[in-house]
Amino acid sequence: MSLPPILSGPLTVPVLASPMFIYSGPELVAAQCQAGVIGAFPSLNARPQSALGEWIDQIVQSNAAFAEANPDAYVAPFAVNLIVHKSNDRLAEDLATVVEHQVPIVITSLGAREDVNEAIHSYGGIVLHDVINNRFARKAIEKGADGLIAVAAGAGGHAGTQSPFALVREIREWFDGPLLLSGAISHGQSILAARAAGADLAYIGSAFLAAEESRAPQDYKQMIVDSTAADIIYSNLFTGIHGNYLRGSIEAAGMDPDNLPESDPTAMDFGSGGDSASKAWKDIWGAGQGVGGVTSTGPVADLVDRLRTEYRAAIDSLAQATAAETANIAEAPTAGETAAAGSTSATAGN
Ligand SMILES: Cc1cc2nc3c(=O)[nH]c(=O)nc-3n(C[C@H](O)[C@H](O)[C@H](O)COP(=O)(O)O)c2cc1C
């Protein structure tokens, strides 16, 4: 199935920059769209609730001004993330704001609901739902989501445990609609790998946290640059569901990252706009295993430029490396042909 036009625009590189609690603001999203990748932010970042409409207006206006000044540039669309968890008491108001402003792409997390999907479809918006396994993926599509985000092992924030190969493969067995893949993607070669595995777009968070326009404090950005996959700790202590966090921030909060107690899902609380969750996320810094590929804290435009250069180089080098194999594969007999030839010669020998 081909991608809906809103996702298939001429992106600089096939990436949706994922929403990040607290740290994705309108300036980051506008910079992402203007660099030619789809930008996103969680609705709960805009506080009070009335700020959500203002943020959306700010992004739309900034993108329009950029497009006018740069008529040849492709300005990518943006997405708003709604946390569809029962503890989110802002959901109804945020959904109403999203519908009023006709947000083109909505990312739903932590729950799939038909009524939410219908509201977004009412004005022509599309819904991408994030999932950590094939069971949730089926449920999301049954409830009316248009596309899926496979959150594989190693992703920043709330992450799954499944290999991207397993997750994408199982979903692609029955779903040919829009599929994004997330988890530790911070290099153009990995974006190509996501596509080769069966995804349409890569979904990238942590690499954008370190960008100049992100709202993460400087120490957090630097810790991302200085960390590698070995510095990522998977724990459910901070929000009640498992996520990936920077070892250094857990140590700075006075805890032993290697001996964290267990929590449980009842600890999840997005009430009153995520106030209790935000306390945990302010001190304990989320990041995925792809931090080893993040080496600077420059502007979004530089990061997207690097990803594009790497992506193109990866396409070229893979094309070269596989050219000989392609010829061999085309010429080599299939197993069936070999068996048939064997039985013919056996017959001829008799
Ligand atoms: C600090 C942080 C906050 C996040 N907050 C949210 C959120 O509010 N909503 C959401 O759907 N995903 C959230 N995520 C997950 C990302 O959207 C995405 O799945 C993840 O960052 C992709 O993996 P990567 O960081 O390895 O690129 C967050 C991730 C990080 C690192």
UniProtKB/TrEMBL annotation:
What CDD domains does the database record attribute to this sequence? NPD_like
Do you know which InterPro entries this protein is assigned to? Aldolase_TIM, NMO
Which portions of the sequence form the region Disordered? 329-350
Entry keyword set: Flavoprotein, FMN, Monooxygenase, Oxidoreductase
Taxonomic superkingdom: Bacteria
* Molecular function (Gene Ontology), one example: oxidoreductase activity
EC assignment: the record states 1.13.12.-
Family annotation (Pfam families):
NMO
Sequence similarity: Belongs to the nitronate monooxygenase family. NMO class I subfamily.
PANTHER family noted in UniProt: BLR1330 PROTEIN, NITRONATE MONOOXYGENASE-RELATED
The identity of this protein, by name, is NAD(P)H-dependent flavin oxidoreductase
Q: What is the lineage of its organism?
A: Bacteria, Bacillati, Actinomycetota, Actinomycetes, Mycobacteriales
